[in-house]
Structures are given as structure tokens and as C-alpha cells.
Specification:
Layout (H helix, E strand, L loop, with lengths): L7 H15 L3 H17 L4 H10 L1
Helix pairs in contact: 1-2
């Protein structure tokens, strides 16, 4: 399993996104941030996530 190293910039960006979402829906903000972490943890193992990210970029 690969190890994910979060940069401080990435964590700051995720916090800013969460703060932005929280202005309208604080509960969904936490759900979103949690889901990002869960998805990234599975990223090296899940081919469909990689393909989705490649399509997104």
C-alpha cells in the first residue's frame, strides 16, 4: 500500500474548501472533508478512483 503524504498547502486548501462549504451547510462540510480523506486513502488501491481523477483533471 502506498503512503499518502499531505502537504501543508493541500491541507490548507482542503480546510478553505470546507470553510467555504460550511457557510451554507456546516454538516455537509464535515461530510465532504471526511469523504476526501477516505477517498484518498483508497486511491492507490482503487483503479476506478484513479480513472475518475484522471478524467477530472
Amino acid at each position: 500500500m502506498a503512503r499518502i503524504n499531505w502537504t501543508s498547502q493541500a491541507l490548507d486548501d482542503l480546510q478553505a474548501i470546507g470553510d467555504f462549504i460550511a457557510r451554507d451547510t456546516p454538516v455537509f462540510s464535515q461530510v465532504f472533508v471526511d469523504k476526501v480523506f477516505e477517498t484518498v486513502e483508497r486511491f492507490p488501491e482503487n483503479d476506478s478512483i484513479r480513472k475518475g481523477i484522471l478524467l477530472f483533471v
